UniProtKB/TrEMBL annotation:
Annotated source species: Mucilaginibacter terrigena
InterPro entries per the UniProt record, alphabetical: Aminoacid_DH-like_N_sf (IPR046346), Malate_Decarboxylase (IPR051674), Malic_N_dom (IPR012301), Malic_N_dom_sf (IPR037062), Malic_NAD-bd (IPR012302), Malic_NAD-bd_bact_type (IPR045213), ME_PTA (IPR012188), NAD(P)-bd_dom_sf (IPR036291)
Name of the protein in question: NADP-dependent malic enzyme
Gene3D superfamilies found in the cross-reference section: 3.40.50.10950, Isocitrate/Isopropylmalate dehydrogenase-like, Malic enzyme, N-terminal domain, NAD(P)-binding Rossmann-like Domain
Cofactors that this protein relies on: Mn(2+); Mg(2+)
Binding-site positions, NADP(+): V77, L78, G79, L80, G81, N82, I83, G84, N288
Gene Ontology MF terms in the entry: acyltransferase activity; malic enzyme activity; metal ion binding; NAD binding; oxidoreductase activity, acting on the CH-OH group of donors, NAD or NADP as acceptor
The keyword NADP is annotated on this UniProt entry: yes
Active-site residue numbers: K95 (proton acceptor)
CDD domains assigned: NAD_bind_2_malic_enz
Residue ranges constituting the Malic enzyme NAD-binding domain according to the UniProt record: 164-401
Length: 767
């Protein structure tokens, strides 16, 4: 993406709608006057008096125990430097967002106009009654060291400067595992550290605490090697000075070194330096956005290397998000008075051990990897691994208790782990997982309506994010004009105009004529039809020139789907297509069908729809739990709908005994396990809510998803077309760019699955 467009996209993201990225949301009812009198005056006096009597009750009656302050003075923001507190606010909001989505920790971001240590410390200390913990962020060295030291000594809540300790903890875990894989001992390795800022100093101290020997360490800053002859070093850096006289340059230090750790600047390490390192070298090139040496160059230089970077597009990403949310989660849950060395070491070991355990299939699927396992390309867990919240938070909480800084004990660790998992929720996880899976094997997606800004904007996003390879259909001049007007970066994307007669379009027309000649289509008409981009795009998919087709932004559903049905057709054994919506709710994903195609399906047609739905839901790495919906519960009413839905369930139970499905039932019973168990304990759905809802007709399904979308605040992804031989997905009229991107992502997953099934098919067979 060109820089002006990337800049504008970032500005739009932060400014559109409600400015910023976070908001305060009430956690108690506020709908009645009674609610308000309890929330504020006069009811609020009661918890105030309780806290006045016992200050520890502040954790019982307020949000303090789950509230962290992310605090910065803006003196060392990312790679931007000293840009001031106001300019640092978007970063602090982003940090708050990560705390919330990964560990359910609420955050107030505080950007303070305080340059000196005393000013900063005094402000933060005064805020101690408000917060359960303090995350210091983007404060320049060397003041950050003194600020953290004093706050830890003078406050009784956990304080951590993540720029220092986050990278240290994650890279410490990576170092332990890399040494194990490479057959090296921590106390024997020769290490080079390039960089001497806050992160580098903290990382090096962590490595020493893990067993690395100081005499085996050489550190560099911007002025060269830290040695005893330097007169410009402060006490913090002087402790890492070497007395070696044979090292004056980075190239000197790299000779026969076992480990290189980079927290400096991009492209300062050469392949020749890596070649000079010892056997089985370990290289952590963690400068962002460009590492000290690129992953590809490093791997090409040494086949025996273990390479890690700060980037997500290569193996072994050293990402602070593996640590800080869960470290604070564990500290808050035991009301720790500090985050001490024991807790940080516990986090290191927990992260390291996690990488050695079998990887959940959900993680494999999220990253599109068949069998992710401990080894050179997997030395630390992936950020999407939900086990992090239980493994790391529990380890930190235990260490806090054992080291004496916890004010609250945990006795039932199984219950604590369940509580941690319940905090995650599922609203956004499924889209993150699907997007990651799509990125592992992007497919060619042809856009039939490429002469619209929304389609082109979405095409650029999926191209830039590595989700799909766009192909644009339409008038080339008009498309290029829109690209230029909006400063889009799509110059290298293939554009095809079906209105221009080519040998290929004539071949497509001949194919259509051969297929439809006994259904009233002449060759002349077939040639005219091929000018239609939906017909042309469907032919591209059919003949393997594209992997999926996206259309429908400007045309109604029936007009869009007809060409695909005539040219591509349905899967073998599939009698009809169906439409499904993925509804992303606060309680997790729920799949609705049929919502767009079959108006009044028969019992057998509902069976066909259910089978399609079950297979499609499983592609999202969700175990389908299916409810056949009606206005009746298990025979409580008569009528056409209860009768056909009962018959649907009977056929499904008979022909697909391993399918988790039941009905007929009302929607509230399907979604409320307690209600279902109390009234119908025999139901096969008892235990957890249904996540796949089969509606008795299109009207009820369509109405339900639109109501949930508008009133319930759910995000609707769809309609997802089921049953086609090859992927074709139809947009809603007027879809937003986000909705188009979501549908393209679904289309890529669909194409991945259909390509795999084509090898041989392993579809479910009826008895």
């Amino acid at each position: 993406m060109n820089k002006p467009n990337r800049k504008q996209e970032a500005l739009n993201y932060h400014s559109k709608g409600r400015p910023g990225k976070i908001q305060v949301v009430p956690t108690k009812p506020t709908n009645s006057q009674r609610d308000l009198t309890l929330a504020y005056s006069p009811g609020v006096a009661e918890p105030c008096l309780r806290i006045a009597d016992n200050v520890e009750d502040v954790y019982k009656y307020t949000a303090k125990g789950n509230l962290v302050a992310v605090i910065s003075n803006g003196t060392a923001v990312l790679g931007l430097g000293n840009i001031g507190p106001e300019a640092s606010k978007p970063v602090m909001e982003g940090k708050g967002l990560l705390f919330k989505i990964y560990a359910d920790i609420d955050v107030f971001d505080l950007e303070i106009n305080a340059k000196t240590v005393d000013e900063f410390v005094n402000i933060v200390k005064a805020l101690e009654p408000t917060f359960g913990g303090v995350n210091l962020e983007d404060i320049s060295a060397p003041t950050c060291f003194e600020i953290e030291r004093r706050l830890k000594a003078e406050m009784k809540i956990p304080v951590m400067h993540d720029d220092q300790h986050g990278t240290a903890i994650i890279s410490g875990a990576a170092l332990m595992n890399a040494c194990e894989i490479q057959g090296k001992k921590l106390d024997k390795i020769k290490m080079v550290v390039n960089g001497a800022g806050a992160a580098a100093v903290s990382c090096t101290k962590m490595y020493l605490s893990l067993g690395v020997k100081k005499e085996n360490l050489v550190m560099f800053d911007i002025n060269g090697v830290l040695n005893n002859d330097r007169t410009d070093l402060d006490d913090m850096r002087m402790q890492f000075a070497t007395d070696r006289k044979d090292v004056t340059t980075l190239a000197d230090a790299m000779k026969n070194a076992d480990v290189f750790v980079g927290l400096s600047a991009g492209n300062v390490v050469t392949p020749a330096m890596l070649v000079s390192m010892a056997k089985n070298p370990i290289v952590f090139a963690m400068a962002n956005p460009e590492p000290e040496i690129s992953y590809d160059l490093a791997i090409a230089a040494r086949k025996d290397i273990i390479m890690a970077t700060g980037r997500s597009d290569f193996p072994n990403q050293v990402n602070n998000v593996l640590g800080f949310p869960y470290i604070f989660r564990g500290a808050l849950d035991v009301r720790a008075t500090a985050i001490n060395e024991e807790m940080k070491i516990a986090a290191v070991k927990a992260i390291a051990e996690m990488a050695k355990k079998p990887v959940p299939e959900a993680v494999n699927l999220a990253y599109g990897i068949t069998n992710l396992k401990f080894g050179r390309d997997y030395i630390i867990p992936k950020p999407m691994d939900q086990r992090l919240i239980t493994e790391v938070s529990s380890a930190v909480a235990r260490a806090a208790i054992e080291s004496g800084v916890a004010r609250k004990a945990i006795t039932d660790w199984n219950a604590y782990n369940e509580e941690l998992l319940s905090r995650l929720g599922n609203k956004n996880k499924i889209l993150r997982d699907v997007t990651n899976k799509a990125k592992q094997n992007p497919k060619r997606v042809v856009f039939a309506e490429a002469d619209t800004y929304k389609i082109l904007r979405a095409a650029q996003i999926v191209k830039d994010e590595g989700i799909a390879i766009p192909i644009l259909l339409g008038n080339a001049e008009r498309i290029k004009e829109i690209i230029k007007e909006n400063e889009l970066d799509l110059d290298d994307i293939q554009i095809i105009d079906p209105k221009i007669r080519t040998e290929r379009s004539l071949e497509f027309a001949q194919f259509l004529f051969n297929k439809r000649q006994r259904k009233g289509v002449t060759l002349f008409e077939a040639k005219k039809m091929m000018v239609d981009r939906n017909y042309y795009g469907a032919c591209m998919v059919h003949f393997g020139e594209a992997d999926a087709l996206i259309s429908g932004l400007t045309k109604d559903y029936a007009t869009t789907i007809k060409p695909a049905l005539q040219i591509i057709g349905t899967e073998a054994g599939v009698n009809r297509v169906a439409g499904m919506y993925l509804m992303i709710t606060e309680k997790g994903p729920v799949f609705f069908g049929d919502t767009t195609v079959n108006i009044n399906p028969t019992a057998q047609e509902l069976v066909d729809i259910t089978v399609l739905m079950e297979r499609s839901v499983a592609q999202f790495n969700v175990k389908p739990r299916i409810a056949i919906l009606s206005y009746s519960n298990f025979g409580s009413n008569e009528g056409d709908i209860p009768e056909k839905t009962r018959e649907t369930v009977r056929i499904l139970h008979e022909k697909y005994p391993d399918m988790v499905v039941d009905g007929e039932m009302q929607a509230n019973f399907a979604l409320n396990p307690a209600l279902l168990a109390d009234n119908f304990p025999f139901s096969t759905l008892n235990g957890t809510p249904a996540n796949t809802l089969i509606f008795p007709g299109l009207a009820s399904g369509n109405i339900a998803y639109k109501l949930l979308q508008e009133i319930g605040g759910a995000e609707a992804v769809g309609p997802i077309l089921l049953g086609m031989k090859k992927p074709v997905h139809v947009l809603q009229l007027g879809s937003s760019v986000r909705e188009i991107v979501n549908m393209v992502t679904i289309a890529v997953i669909d194409a991945q699955v259909k390509c795999a099934e084509a090898k041989p098919s392993k579809n479910r067979k009826a008895k």
